[in-house]
Amino acid sequence: MAYQRMRDFLAALERRGKLRRIARRVDPSWEPACLAKWMFQALPDEERFGLFFENVAGSDIPLVTAALGASTETYAAALQAAPDEINAKWVRALLNPVAPRVVEDAPCQEVIVQGDGARLGRLPIPVWTPGKDIGPYLTTIVVTRDARSGVQNLGVYRTRVLDDRRLAINLNPGRHGHLCCRSYWEQGKPAPIAWVIAAEPEVHLATVANLPYGSDEIRVAGGLKGEPVALARAKTVDLLVPANAEIVIEAEIRPGEHEQEGPFGEFAGFMGPIGQRPMARVTAITHRKDPIFYGYTSQMPPSESTVIQSLTNAGLILKMLRYDLGEPNVRDVYIDLTFGGLLAHCVVALAPQYPGHGKRVGRMVADVTPVKRVTVVDADVDIRDPVHLDWALSSLFNPARDTVVIDDVFYPLNMDPSTRTAEDRAVPGGKLVIDATQKADAGPFSLPPREMMTRALDLWREVGLPEFRIPKRARLRIDRS
Ligand SMILES: Cc1cc2nc3c(=O)[nH]c(=O)nc-3n(C[C@H](O)[C@H](O)[C@H](O)COP(=O)(O)O)c2cc1C
Fold first, then answer.
1. Fewer Cβ in 10 A, N or C end of the chain?
2. Domains, in order of start, for the chain
């Protein structure tokens, strides 16, 4: 059964030792983010954990970060799956979306605060790159709606807290949240918007899926859950919000109202740009009686933001290649967790069927996704293992023959330093496709036969050598030896 509430997932994570509570009072202007930063900068994926700050200065609400995206393990746990089942779970959800259901009694509306009482200052909103960000930011689900079709959109758009009642949101033109708001502004109307904090895990993970405009991510969240997501009517704006969330901030953005947004530490590893962005006025804050606040750890990669975007969008690309683009011989897809969904490195495992197949599949991924680098390898390479991947590149890839460079690529986000000149002028970006599949029979692997290697494992133990876990790359190689 999927978790119905974020707090149920947090409890499960704590039971498996993957959530750490910090009882000491922390200052949200720097301490939570710096601790999270150390965790991502210093600990390997398998040792990381979510952080639960019980006592945040200035607020009576606890703050949680990195629980969903500390690591592959916590992400998988959020989906009640094993780490190697994540892609399969995504493919199933995308093939079987489930429409949400609307409920009348919503836990996220146990307390409703409107008017002057709806103050953002009550919430433990952190500064994510202390000393460099302009101030506290919301990093969570944003709900918007297309005025014409009525279809809602979920996305994460970093949001600056301007004061108790106003926010400036990084809605880039062309992004789906912006298209939704524009559909109201074009009619001279304020656009409804809501920030949803700590909904059930599937809603959070579906939010960062790069789906086409007009596909409501909530249906995919339902597919991940295997049941409809419960939605409630927001109290002051015309939107449906996840009923089981901890906190919802309702607001509207009037046409033409902007405020400064940024600088903000960004996923590319540098401070994101400053710009004039749409300004939202809070109309209500609704929450559970004893709410928990959640914010994604962003900034220098790896971070929670890179982990959730990579793992989510790898599943999307796998589904697209196999089911929409007619490439059933694509066996697996991985996006490097150290960079994130956009501009990242995508690795595809393929059983090539004809000469040039690897290049063709690589080009497809480059053309229809935002990723900057695509590497295609054979299906018997562990695409999550950098050692195995590097072997394929060194051994099977002929740079002069197996590389495709795609130029004049437009990146909608102004965050890739490689697309700026020394004079700070924006230039088009590029993409790289590498086909590192085997093009000709290179003969047998230079390892003893499988049967001998298996017997040698007994010998290893017999002579008292230290125990080890067999890496997947070794299994794959020995199986072919
Ligand atoms: C912590 C975090 C912050 C993000 N901030 C932004 C942002 O400010 N602007 C943006 O366009 N995308 C941002 N993203 C990426 C989008 O949320 C993601 O690409 C999502 O799929 C966008 O939804 P859309 O395709 O419906 O527009 C962020 C993601 C995370 C996890």
1. N
2. 6-294 (2.30.110.10), 304-435 (3.40.1670.10), 450-479 (no CATH)
